Amino acid sequence: MALFSSSNSSQDSGSSGAPATVAPTRSERQACWTHRDAYFGCLTRNKVTIPPGTDMSDGRGAIGKAAKEEQERLQREKNQSVEEARKADPCIQEREGYEQNCARSWIDYFNKRRVLEERQKMMYAQGGPQPAAK
User: Fold this and answer.
1) 27: alpha, beta or left? (left if phi > 0; alpha if psi -120 to 50)
2) Structural domain contains residue 77
3) Residue 78: inside a domain
């Protein structure tokens, strides 16, 4: 039995009766990455750190000087519905391509990874140059 089988036989689907998951092809993965890069590029050009509608309720977000502004923005976003957040997204066209070409779990992962990378950039920028050890 293959790990990512597309067969619908009762033997492959197990006792749960759920259809087997098929892994995306190389071209499907490439399409996802291309649309993700276009969307994130648009967000960067528009100075948007956290993609609108991204759930960051686990407490991870901006730090340092940007933390207060980011927390206020997150509070405003939390008060908005998901649909309102989507309408406010300056990159809605790129986002639609991203969501059509990527699995939901991939989108959640990529969005949270983007936030983490932006946090790291802010930390390094705020840290400034360190004196060399002697």
Assistant:
1) alpha
2) yes
3) yes
